[in-house]
């Protein structure tokens, strides 16, 4: 298809959800009421030949085409050439209270939700027919009250003020402190308010469809007010007026469809009558049909004019309102218009709004868009009109299957199924690949929707061609063959998906749509017992899926993680189905299970799965018939044989669990099981005793002095125990040395196994393991320095490396999209544990790591290029200290003091001075975690460190403070500076140039009280404090923060000196 220019390719800015500034203001101004000195008489309804000319929008921008007027029906009187402006001003003084129903009566009826809307509307119509100005005033006050506004539009306001002035006056009286209004107030009295309000609008339009809708006063005036309210800054006005305008628009669309049908029918009759011969024509009927056609055209023009006013004046601006409820209302009603009147609305000009709102930030709006599209794709005749939309937004729709809102993702999968079924192209295989993995999602509704998609894609289409449904087949053999084909498809999908050990989630996803196929135990067991049924690699997956299906049918509960934290309560119908399934499972597998166990007894994985089947039987059925007892004996015999044959832990655990169940006293056959398993245990005991006797005999032959061994064993057991411990410790050391040599071999399997064994041994023989058993202290084995180095090198060389991306294994939790690198959780847990063991040492370790990175940056001659990355790392590490500032006070103080020591550390001879001062920028990332008193202390410490650093860098003084001991000075109290050199000498000799260094100034600013301002520029020279972004999210924004801090620190130093 040739791609043409379309409004779909130029979406507007969806983030700019403006509330005002509507380009419909020109229309509003043109429709404002004019003050007339003398109210004129009411204009008659007809003629209305120029109604369509009042549309303010150009025809090219009008999404609702207006039918061209019939030239033969146009009239030329000059009195009708100038269109009358819509006016809300009453023609005469009217007392609202004398007109029957009041605004409060209508509001109370809406709130109650129990009144018949037809009766309420009829009462109001009677009032309106007596005086349309008074009736309109009642309706306006009802709308104002529905917005939650306590203001009232009086008769004087109605007669002397324009719409904008009335809205402005109501806005002043609105309670701005309250965020609740009837449409969103969560009180029981108003829970039916929205539905009743929508019903009122629908009934009002329907009751006026043959008369008052064309009087050129009621609805134009009402729409003018609603359009003004929809542009208000008050959310309640905007929300309520938009909802009413959209519902009125929906009513107009319904009437337009009726009028269009009536026009087509009448026009066809007119053409038939007009095609007759002249003498056969009925002149009166012809004139009557012509008048009817003219009236239908006029009515359609009038409705199109009002619809276009709503569309351009309200919808075009409110579909992107900042309130998601308003956007959702617009999209919901647009979907109704598209389905009701596809001839006028189902085009690219209207569909683009659905496509754009698929990117909305709020889930309810996206959900409403998807549901609207579902309604469109369900109609076969709409598919052709949706081709351009499908090609433009298919990629976005497919990406939404991973939407963070699970409800949206579920509906998107259902939409993709409709696109697959209804469109000719359907979805390509790579596009379906976005949906297939969702069968393993943790959200059950999403997984079930993906299961339906998978079922229809493969089972229903590929294996059920010729429109043969799997649920409705007449031939039983065809049904079995279809089930067999379906099972092969599921097995193939399960193998290819590579999500093994999660078959329960695949079964649960398909249970709702393919429950009958998954309950076809006959076909499954036939596959397993026939030699030519399946390939070897398919037997294991089939057994796993069969056992998952048995568990699902017997327990009628979803697998772990699919319950969403809610307890599943079965209904009476579900319980009945569950009981029937258990009986069918028991009756089918009792005779076949021994055969399956015999066939797969040598395969540990398969037999461990099959041993779980009896746990879901109705075991009392073994005692219900005598012929079933032989199958019980066969089952017991197979279990005993499996125990004797296997040593795998999984198989023995499955056998033990089954034996415990069969020996339960609640079953009448438990005695038979006791006898069988007692014989099994006796045989195992005898076998063990025989092996033990042989072992002891071998030891006796080796021992040269049996009597001495017995004496030592009996009388010198403590000594033997110590000697045995020493021997064991020696063997452990020898074994560790062997494993250490294996860490450098080229074979990955041996190398990895050696590393794991070493870790287990060091943990097993650590000091913490024998802390409660002093007698085993001799077994403690601490790793040597060389072993520690090799283990650390192993981690760096083989573990913490950049590996290629691998597929995510396990259950897909698709409402999250953050993927962490390997071992991130291990490192995070290690850091957390170190904080619990020694918080101060942990903080100093963090500082040491940053210092090492900073030193590496300087060593590699990378200047400040990597400084932003180190600062970003520091910022992340600072967030790990938590929000309890009092708890982390001492660790943070230690970190800052170590950092300051490092920043002002003396450089080696021959190197540039003050290389480490830039480390203060990294240290500033931790300042926002400090308490205010600690900020002041560190500010003083930093300031005096600068003074000392400059002094010791430029003078050689005979004083007690040495450069080598400078860190000790920094960690001491400022009172130490009372010793020589004297204060006046220090103040006179210390230059202040260091205070202007960018890194120092940045760190000083970070110690100022927190605020929400951004980092400012330096006052001196206008240079930026740092080339990197602000290290602190919250800073005080003052004109001379650095100078103030310097002054404060100077005062503190003077006091200290």
Question: Could you give a short description of this structure?
Answer:
Residues 62-71 have a biased composition (Pro residues). It is built from 41 helices and no strands.
Distance between the termini: 87 Å
Rounded to an integer in angstroms, the radius of gyration calculated over CA atoms is 43 Å
Percent of residues in helical segments?
Answer: 55-70%
In percent, how much strand structure appears in the residues?
under 5%
Mean pLDDT: 75
The DSSP helix count reads 41
**Biggest sheet layout:** none
Characterization of this structure:
The protein is mainly α. 59% of the residues lie in helices and 0% in strands. It is built from 41 helices and no strands. Helix 11 (324-340) packs parallel to helix 14, helix 21 (521-529) packs parallel to helix 23 (572-599) and helix 35 (889-903) runs parallel beside helix 37.
Keywords:
about 1050 residues, mainly alpha, 41 helices, about 60% helix, disordered N terminus, disordered C terminus
Note the topology.
Layout: H1 25-30, H2 103-112, H3 117-130, H4 132-146, H5 155-160, H6 163-173, H7 193-207, H8 218-230, H9 235-274, H10 283-318, H11 324-340, H12 342-345, H13 348-357, H14 363-377, H15 387-399, H16 406-422, H17 429-432, H18 444-460, H19 476-497, H20 503-518, H21 521-529, H22 536-555, H23 572-599, H24 604-610, H25 629-645, H26 649-662, H27 670-702, H28 706-715, H29 717-742, H30 748-764, H31 785-799, H32 824-837, H33 839-859, H34 867-879, H35 889-903, H36 919-923, H37 932-954, H38 966-970, H39 983-989, H40 998-1006, H41 1041-1056
Helix pairs in contact: 2-4, 3-4, 3-7, 7-9, 8-9, 8-10, 9-10, 9-11, 11-14, 13-15, 14-16, 16-18, 18-20, 19-20, 19-22, 20-22, 21-22, 21-23, 22-23, 22-24, 23-25, 24-26, 25-27, 28-29, 29-30, 32-33, 33-34, 33-35, 35-37, 37-41
């Amino acid at each position: 298809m040739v791609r043409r220019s379309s409004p779909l390719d130029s979406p507007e800015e969806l983030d700019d959800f403006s509330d005002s500034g509507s380009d419909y203001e020109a229309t509003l101004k043109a429709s404002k009421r004019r003050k007339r000195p003398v109210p004129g008489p009411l204009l008659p309804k007809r003629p209305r030949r120029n109604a369509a000319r009042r549309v303010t929008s150009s025809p090219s921008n009008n999404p609702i085409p207006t039918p061209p007027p019939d030239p033969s029906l146009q009239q030329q009187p000059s009195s009708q050439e100038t269109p009358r402006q819509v006016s809300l001003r009453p023609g005469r003084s009217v007392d609202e209270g004398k007109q029957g129903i009041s605004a409060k009566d209508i509001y109370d009826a809406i709130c109650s939700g129990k009144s018949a809307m037809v009766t309420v509307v009829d009462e109001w119509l009677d009032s309106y027919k007596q005086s349309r100005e008074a009736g309109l005033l009642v309706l306006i006050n009802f709308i104002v009250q529905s917005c939650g506004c306590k203001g009232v539009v009086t008769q004087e306001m109605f007669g002397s003020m324009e719409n904008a002035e009335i809205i402005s006056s109501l806005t002043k009286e609105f309670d701005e402190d309250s965020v609740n209004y009837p449409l969103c107030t969560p009180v029981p009295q108003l829970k039916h308010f929205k539905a009743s309000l929508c019903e009122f609008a629908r009934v009002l339009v329907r009751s006026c469809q043959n008369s008052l809708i064309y009087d050129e006063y009621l609805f134009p005036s009402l729409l003018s007010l609603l359009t003004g309210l929809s542009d208000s800054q008050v959310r309640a006005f905007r929300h309520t007026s938009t909802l009413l305008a959209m519902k009125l628009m929906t009513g107009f669309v319904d009437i337009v469809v009726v009028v269009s049908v009536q026009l087509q029918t009448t026009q066809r009759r007119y053409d038939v009558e007009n095609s007759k011969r002249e003498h056969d024509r009925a002149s009166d009927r012809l004139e009557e049909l012509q008048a009817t056609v003219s009236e239908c055209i006029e009515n359609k023009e009038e409705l199109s004019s009002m619809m276009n006013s709503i569309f351009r004046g309200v919808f075009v601006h409110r579909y992107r309102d900042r309130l998601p409820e308003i956007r959702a209302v617009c999209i919901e009603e647009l979907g109704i218009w598209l389905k009701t009147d596809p001839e006028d609305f189902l085009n690219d000009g209207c569909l683009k709004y659905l496509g754009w709102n698929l990117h909305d930030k709020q889930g309810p709006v996206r959900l409403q868009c998807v549901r609207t599209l579902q309604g469109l794709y369900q109609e076969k005749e709409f598919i052709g009109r949706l081709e351009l939309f499908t090609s433009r937004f298919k990629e976005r729709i497919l990406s939404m299957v991973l939407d963070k809102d699970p409800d949206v993702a579920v509906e998107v999968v259902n939409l993709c199924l409709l696109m697959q079924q209804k469109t000719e192209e359907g979805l390509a295989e790579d596009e379906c690949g976005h949906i297939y993995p969702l069968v393993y999602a943790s959200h059950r509704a999403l997984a079930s929707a993906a299961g339906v998609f998978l079922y229809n894609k493969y089972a229903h289409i590929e294996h059920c061609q010729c429109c043969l449904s799997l649920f409705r087949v007449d031939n039983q053999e065809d049904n079995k063959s279809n089930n067999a084909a379906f099972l092969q498809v599921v097995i193939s999908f399960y193998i290819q998906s590579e999500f093994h050990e999660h078959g329960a989630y695949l079964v649960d996803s398909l249970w709702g749509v393919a429950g009958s196929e998954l309950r076809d135990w006959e076909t499954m067991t036939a596959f397993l017992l026939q030699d030519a049924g399946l390939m070897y690699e398919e037997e294991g997956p089939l057994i796993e899926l069969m056992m998952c299906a048995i568990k699902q049918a017997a327990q009628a509960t979803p697998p772990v993680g699919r319950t969403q934290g809610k307890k599943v309560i079965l209904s009476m119908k579900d319980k009945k189905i569950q009981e029937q399934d258990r009986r069918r499972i028991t009756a089918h597998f009792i005779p076949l299970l021994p055969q399956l166990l015999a066939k797969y007894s040598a395969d540990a994985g398969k037999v461990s799965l099959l041993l779980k089947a009896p746990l879901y039987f109705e075991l009392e059925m073994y005692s219900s018939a005598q012929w079933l007892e032989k199958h019980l004996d066969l089952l017991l015999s197979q279990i005993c044989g499996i125990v004797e044959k296997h040593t795998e832990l999984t198989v023995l655990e499955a056998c033990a669990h089954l034996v415990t169940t069969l020996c339960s006293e609640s079953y009448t056959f438990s005695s038979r099981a006791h006898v069988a398993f007692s014989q099994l245990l006796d045989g195992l005991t005898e076998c063990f005793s025989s092996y033990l006797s042989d072992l002891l005999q071998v030891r006796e032959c080796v021992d040269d002095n049996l009597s001495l061994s017995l004496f030592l064993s009996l009388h010198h057991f403590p000594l033997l125990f110590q000697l045995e411990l020493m021997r064991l410790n020696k063997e452990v050391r020898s074994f560790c040395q062997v494993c250490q040599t294996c860490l450098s071999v080229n074979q990955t399997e041996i190398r990895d196994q050696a590393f794991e064994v070493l870790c287990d041994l060091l943990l097993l023989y650590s000091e913490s393991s024998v802390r409660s058993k002093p007698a085993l202290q001799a077994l403690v084995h601490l790793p040597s320095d060389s072993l520690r180095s090799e283990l650390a090198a192993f981690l760096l060389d083989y573990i913490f490396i950049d590996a290629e991306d691998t597929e995510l294994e396990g259950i897909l939790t698709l409402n999250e999209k953050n993927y962490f690198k390997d071992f991130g959780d291990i490192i995070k847990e290690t850091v957390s544990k170190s904080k619990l063991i020694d918080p101060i040492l942990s903080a100093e370790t963090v500082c040491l790591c940053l210092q090492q990175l900073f030193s590496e940056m300087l060593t590699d001659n990378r200047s400040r290029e990597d400084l932003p990355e180190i600062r970003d790392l520091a910022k992340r590490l600072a967030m790990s200290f938590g929000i309890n500032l009092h708890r982390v006070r001492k660790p943070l103080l230690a970190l800052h003091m170590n950092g300051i020591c490092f920043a002002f550390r003396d450089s080696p001879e021959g190197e540039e001075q003050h290389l480490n001062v830039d480390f203060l920028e990294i240290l500033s990332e931790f300042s926002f975690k400090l308490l205010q008193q600690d900020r002041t202390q560190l500010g003083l410490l930093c300031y005096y460190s600068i003074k000392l650093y400059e002094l010791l860098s430029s003078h050689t003084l005979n004083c007690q403070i040495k450069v080598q001991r400078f860190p000790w000075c920094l960690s001491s109290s400022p009172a130490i500076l009372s010793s020589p050199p004297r204060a006046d000498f220090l103040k006179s000799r210390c230059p202040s140039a260091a205070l202007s260094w960018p890194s120092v100034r940045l760190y000083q600013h970070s110690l100022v009280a927190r605020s929400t301002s951004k980092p400012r520029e330096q006052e001196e020279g206008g240079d930026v404090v740092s080339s990197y972004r602000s290290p602190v999210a919250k800073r005080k924004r003052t004109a001379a923060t650095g100078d103030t801090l310097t002054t404060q620190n100077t005062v503190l130093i003077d006091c200290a000196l």
